[in-house]
Amino acid sequence: MLSIGYVLKRLLQIIPTLVFIVVVTFLIVRLLPGDPASAILGDKATDAEVARLHAEMGLDRPLIVQFGNFALRVVQGDLGTSTAVKLPVGRIVLDRLPATLLLTVMAAFLALLLAVPLAFVAALRQGRLGDTVIQGCFQVGLSMPVFYVGLILLTVFAAGLRWFPVGGYGDTYLLHLYHLFLPALTLALSLAAVLMRNLRTAILDALTADYADFARAKGLPTRVVLFRHVLRNALISTVTLFGLNIGTLLGGAVITETVFAIPGAGRLMIDSIYARDYPTIQGLTLVLAVLVSVAFLLTDLVQASLDPRVAQ
Amino acid sequence: MSAGALPFEPAKATPTRRRKLALPGALIAGLLILAFSLTLAFFPSLFAPFDPLKFDYKAILKPPSLAHPFGTDNFGRDMLSRTIHAYTLDMQIAFFATIVPMLAGTAIGTIVGYYGGLLETLFGRLVDGVITFPFIVLVIAIVAVLGPGLANMYVAIGLVGWVFYARLVAGEMKVQKRLDYADAGRVMGYGDMRIAFRHLLPNAVSPALVYWMTDMALCILLGTSLGYLGLGAQPPAAEWGVLIAGGKNFFTTAWWISIFPGIAIVLTGLGFSLLGNGLAELMKVKR
Amino acid sequence: MSTLLSVSGLTTRLLTPAGLLAAVEDVDFTLDERDSLGLVGESGSGKSVTMRSLLRLLPQRAEVEGSVRWRGRELVGLPENALRALRGREIAMIFQEPMSALNPVLRIGLQIEESLKVHTDLDRAGRRARAVELLALTGIPTPERRLDDFPHQFSGGMRQRAMIAIALAASPALLLADEPTTALDVTIQDQILHLLARLRREMGMAMILVTHDLAVVAESCERVAVMYAGRIVERGTVRQVFAAPRHPYTLGLLRSVPDGDRPRQKLRSIEGTPPGLGNRTRGCAFQPRCGFATAQCATDRPPLADIAPGHAAACWQAGRLTDLSREAA
Amino acid sequence: MRYRWSALIALVAAMHVGTAAAVERGGVMTFGRYADSLFLDPASTEVNVDIWILSNLYDTLILPSDDGKGLQPGLATSWSFSGDNKTLTLKLRDGIKFSDGSPITSADAKWSLDRTRNPDTGAWASLYESIDSIAAPDPSTVVINLKHPDPALLPVLTAFASAVMPSKLIEATAGATLADKVKAFAEHPVGSGPFKLQSWKHDAEMKLVPNPYYWRMGEDGKPLPYLDGVTFEVIPDDATRILRLKSGELDASEFIPYARVEELKNDSSLNMELFPSTRIEYVALNVRPELDGKPNPLANPKLREALNYATDKDAIVGIVTHGVGTPMTSFMSTATPLHVGDKPLYPVDVDKAKQIMHEAGLDKGVKVTLMTLAGNEDEVGIATALQQMWKEIGVDLEIQQIDNATRTAAYRAGTFPSRLSLWTDDIADPSEITSWALYYPAVQSFHTGWKNDKAVEIFQASQKEMDPAKRQEEYKQLQEIFNSEGPTVPLYETPYPVALAKRVQGFNQLPLGNNLFAQAWLKK
């Protein structure tokens, strides 16, 4: 169903988006008040030291030159050195990225795991108790701030029942998953609420669609009618919605990582902004933008494979 | 915003069959809650028993009691009054943070959707750029540039929020412009702008209006996240996000500080989504 | 020929905002093997609900009463999986909107093979061959290549042919056709009707055709039942009913259809609209719009009584209708 | 006059009583931190997150005493000033080695101190400006020649920036410039302190293990440290950090929010320690006559005096620190040497404040702006309290919440209207804070533009005064001047709130903030 041409077309479309993001980040960072050199050296540094660092960071050169250098080096894969921790940005980002990736992927997985079955139950029991309870719970879930949900889960399941560790990230791969379950669940709740509501409406429409009647008239078992005919059609709009919310999922990771003490890229971004660590902000934003674009492309391709009318 | 994950949920308009059970009930319930919220927002002092800013050193961290139904915070201020007065700020956030993006987005969406072609591809890339960029990071960066405070938060949200409305309206406009009544307009000699805005837009705007309701709830949540990061409303003003963030450290000892503003957010959010569902129902739009 | 299907006292209630309301009331008719019955009436007359009630293809909380005997076996109250085994294998159904009745995201081949998989024990290759056969049977050119196409790659007429192919996969004994031609333009409509006629002959299949188009009934069906406000008001062979309609509603319908061989004649429409589900009166439902109504029509409902062998009508004036209509002409 | 310090050392050691319980060795202590270190180079780092743990990786020639106020021998066993107090000779301990086994020599000490005192490579060069040159006549002797007598030299030598580093190893590390070499070296540092760095996953976990060649002996006669290792975990959210401590996954947690100190005190499984600190909180008021073109109301000393009397320190201590803090008795903390003053400054007197406002003709009220740190709970609390208190006397305080970088830039440029400030001493000597507070030529007195010629004169004299009694007297006068007309509103001092699991013994945090694990041990 997926023609190679379509995939290539979509891949090429990412390039202009990335250029747009790099330029925007470069400019926004330069607009941040407070000179990075003074941000790094803090209250007690003398003006001479600030001036020296300022020059060392090349901030005194005109913007275009700075951008030229930055773009040139990015092409060669060098994202510069972090002014806060004095390490290559590439290495820091690579070091911090897995935690955020794992967290967001797990959150996305949990969100789907929660949303799909519950949307089905809510749709099949439309208007009855089951439907209102599910919608009510998700409404509350959607309105609770992430850090609050995180705190409750931590207190009850981690500190209280000891089912999970209290934050942290663990060393081995398995421990990562064990540590990331609660934060992923926290992050997943709000996304699941959105997906569930959209999917429920889509399933309701699919249930009453002619092809569902026809499928039942053909005497197909209910399982086939529900999954092959109803769900497959309903998922199309939900996959698009999922794609749109990837950027938001990443945004949510920022707070979740702070609450659960996870050494992820989200927290690195916030710390870098506060420390006016230009190289890290730029490098991290570029990397995150690439990843989100790829994820966005993947959901697009999934949608195209689900809905043949798009891929032509 | 929360930096908390603030999920965005644009409605998608596809031709639907008339559903058997119309649900005007959702719309009525939504309007009731909205009315309740607006009354509290415009006349908080009528309902709030105390001055929301007044300290009372002797009444620090008091649990809910007759004198203070919602208890007091770590400054000895009455939580019921602060939660009520927060309605003013939060309803402002809900309205001001979304009205400009909604109007701007709808206008841009109409033009892009109507003309299509190169304009549309450019717009497509811009939308991808904005959606791909972690929204919360953009807001924090912008607020860091302009300094914290609600006005700057509106600017930050506005800079990004319009994209979702534009994308919705453009999508719907592409459907409407192919229908016969669009050609009828051309036959009558109307200019493009008149057709697009006077005739096509009223039919294309419904998903955006429905999304506007959800957007309002999401912006309040965004205020909460910014409150947590200290970039939201400035002290000593009362805003739910700031109240909850403030109560975080007393989470086990003084649970009431965060619980009641939390309930207020849930109630208001519920109001908005009911309104959204009701509107969708009314205009036969798939939420 | 033995009776294939006999329906008596069929009543179906649907859930509406105003609660459970009867969409179909007290419907009786029978259908023999290879026979074809036209269910005709305006929209909202309950013809489509009647057909769907046979296979219980109704929304979740609808209620069906009365008796539907299929080859002597009672279907009302049959457990869902027993009824499901019967759907598609013995009784098949096709719909009005081919574009929305075919699953837009599945290949046509798959939509045929899934039926064969349930009702036959053909292996994969056997099913694929049978699918090609069916497409060819319904007149689709180069069926081998079209198997892997999607519904949106078919034209209107082709989609209807594909749907018929899918329905007939398990060579059912009865085909229920819910307004199969309404969505098509006239030339294609005619092809489809001829196709249905040919398939019925070749497969010895009975058919119930729901339509609001009397011409379609005249061309495709041997017997006809006219429905109004959820009830059958007249039933008989096409020839009997079209020649001497015994119910004012049927008469009105026939008069609003141009008759090719008669010279220019004034077409007359029936004033007013059929009553909604909620407000059905005690007397004859057609009374408010009936030109021949008497006091009695408003108070008690006329039973569906035989006027001639095989020809019945539910109207107090049934006997005298032909001479009355001549006077009023 | 030869003045040998060694006599004094014996006295100090005797005072150090320490618990008599038998020390138990072994075990790894996990310590929850609110933020991760950034760059562990003693000479160039500026931030407390680095400074407070460096003393576990590097020793200095002279070590601070356990109460942080005095001195005790470090890598040097003894030291003495020449008659004219312009030359300090230090004798190195013999047989001392770096954590890679290579010997520590006077050349390393000279190289390290030269790098720290050179403004181009050392962030703290200003503290060492009295040093003229350093000589290493033989491997175990270091001779420091001074431009003028410097009473603060010995405390400065105990500071983290005076850490002795392996000069040969660093010079040999690959790197174009010295700065690059140090950056490379800092990733796998070799130090002279009780521990060495084993692994460091930024913003998550840092593991220290004992330095096998460490010279110092524990109470049981075997080399320190008692622990098998220290693991730092970075948990920025206070609530999560405390939850993790209470569930036993952490042995200790720093920066307990004041609001929860009381709660943890009552927790039987924990020791809620409040280590004395040099941490002070105050409002810095810009006194320049004009601020971006408009007349600056705070230039009027009367207004400043009124603000001081209108500020109820006890209330702020109650509200913001929940009683953990204490009002300030001088512009420097009580834990700073030569501190004078026993009663709180400007006890609250709202009527007097109104009276002063009236005398100054400011009855119709005045508008003041205060810069506070976005997201910082304590500062929000203080600002909100001040806003309400100052409103009583007609001062309308506008709170401007901005992020740290923006405030630092305005502070350094002297364009800030007023700001909340936090300060911790970096050396166990009052000269650092005093030069910042009132020695105008340094940073214009906390960048406020306040100038008092008499204070400047006395300070310059004190910088060369070797006679402790005379220096004490000079600092007494300096404090009297500043405390009476200084450009600040002193608020409170607070201890370091560190919660320790019951099994943790011997952990210490100096008033300067250094977290010392050398003598920490875990009771089984």
From TrEMBL, chain A:
<keyword id="KW-1133">Transmembrane helix</keyword>
<dbReference type="InterPro" id="IPR045621">
    <property type="entry name" value="BPD_transp_1_N"/>
</dbReference>
<keyword id="KW-0472">Membrane</keyword>
<feature type="transmembrane region" description="Helical">
    <location>
        <begin position="145"/>
        <end position="164"/>
    </location>
</feature>
<dbReference type="GO" id="GO:0055085">
    <property type="term" value="P:transmembrane transport"/>
</dbReference>
<comment type="similarity">
    <text>Belongs to the binding-protein-dependent transport system permease family.</text>
</comment>
<dbReference type="Pfam" id="PF00528">
    <property type="entry name" value="BPD_transp_1"/>
</dbReference>
<feature type="transmembrane region" description="Helical">
    <location>
        <begin position="101"/>
        <end position="124"/>
    </location>
</feature>
<feature type="transmembrane region" description="Helical">
    <location>
        <begin position="176"/>
        <end position="196"/>
    </location>
</feature>
<keyword id="KW-0813">Transport</keyword>
<feature type="transmembrane region" description="Helical">
    <location>
        <begin position="281"/>
        <end position="302"/>
    </location>
</feature>
<dbReference type="Pfam" id="PF19300">
    <property type="entry name" value="BPD_transp_1_N"/>
</dbReference>
From TrEMBL, chain B:
<keyword id="KW-0472">Membrane</keyword>
<keyword id="KW-1133">Transmembrane helix</keyword>
<keyword id="KW-0653">Protein transport</keyword>
<keyword id="KW-0571">Peptide transport</keyword>
<dbReference type="GO" id="GO:0055085">
    <property type="term" value="P:transmembrane transport"/>
</dbReference>
<dbReference type="GO" id="GO:0015031">
    <property type="term" value="P:protein transport"/>
</dbReference>
<dbReference type="GO" id="GO:0015833">
    <property type="term" value="P:peptide transport"/>
</dbReference>
<dbReference type="GO" id="GO:0005886">
    <property type="term" value="C:plasma membrane"/>
</dbReference>
<feature type="transmembrane region" description="Helical">
    <location>
        <begin position="126"/>
        <end position="147"/>
    </location>
</feature>
<comment type="similarity">
    <text>Belongs to the binding-protein-dependent transport system permease family.</text>
</comment>
<feature type="transmembrane region" description="Helical">
    <location>
        <begin position="21"/>
        <end position="43"/>
    </location>
</feature>
<keyword id="KW-0813">Transport</keyword>
From TrEMBL, chain C:
<dbReference type="Pfam" id="PF08352">
    <property type="entry name" value="oligo_HPY"/>
</dbReference>
<dbReference type="GO" id="GO:0015833">
    <property type="term" value="P:peptide transport"/>
</dbReference>
<dbReference type="InterPro" id="IPR017871">
    <property type="entry name" value="ABC_transporter-like_CS"/>
</dbReference>
<feature type="domain" description="ABC transporter">
    <location>
        <begin position="5"/>
        <end position="254"/>
    </location>
</feature>
<dbReference type="InterPro" id="IPR027417">
    <property type="entry name" value="P-loop_NTPase"/>
</dbReference>
<dbReference type="InterPro" id="IPR003439">
    <property type="entry name" value="ABC_transporter-like_ATP-bd"/>
</dbReference>
<dbReference type="InterPro" id="IPR013563">
    <property type="entry name" value="Oligopep_ABC_C"/>
</dbReference>
<protein>
    <submittedName>
        <fullName>Peptide/nickel transport system ATP-binding protein/oligopeptide transport system ATP-binding protein</fullName>
    </submittedName>
</protein>
<dbReference type="GO" id="GO:0055085">
    <property type="term" value="P:transmembrane transport"/>
</dbReference>
<keyword id="KW-0067">ATP-binding</keyword>
<keyword id="KW-0813">Transport</keyword>
<keyword id="KW-0547">Nucleotide-binding</keyword>
TrEMBL record, chain D:
<dbReference type="GO" id="GO:0030288">
    <property type="term" value="C:outer membrane-bounded periplasmic space"/>
</dbReference>
<keyword id="KW-0813">Transport</keyword>
<dbReference type="Pfam" id="PF00496">
    <property type="entry name" value="SBP_bac_5"/>
</dbReference>
<keyword id="KW-0732">Signal</keyword>
<dbReference type="GO" id="GO:1904680">
    <property type="term" value="F:peptide transmembrane transporter activity"/>
</dbReference>
<dbReference type="GO" id="GO:0015833">
    <property type="term" value="P:peptide transport"/>
</dbReference>
<dbReference type="InterPro" id="IPR030678">
    <property type="entry name" value="Peptide/Ni-bd"/>
</dbReference>
<comment type="similarity">
    <text>Belongs to the bacterial solute-binding protein 5 family.</text>
</comment>
<dbReference type="InterPro" id="IPR000914">
    <property type="entry name" value="SBP_5_dom"/>
</dbReference>
<dbReference type="GO" id="GO:0043190">
    <property type="term" value="C:ATP-binding cassette (ABC) transporter complex"/>
</dbReference>
<feature type="domain" description="Solute-binding protein family 5">
    <location>
        <begin position="71"/>
        <end position="438"/>
    </location>
</feature>
<protein>
    <submittedName>
        <fullName>Peptide/nickel transport system substrate-binding protein</fullName>
    </submittedName>
</protein>
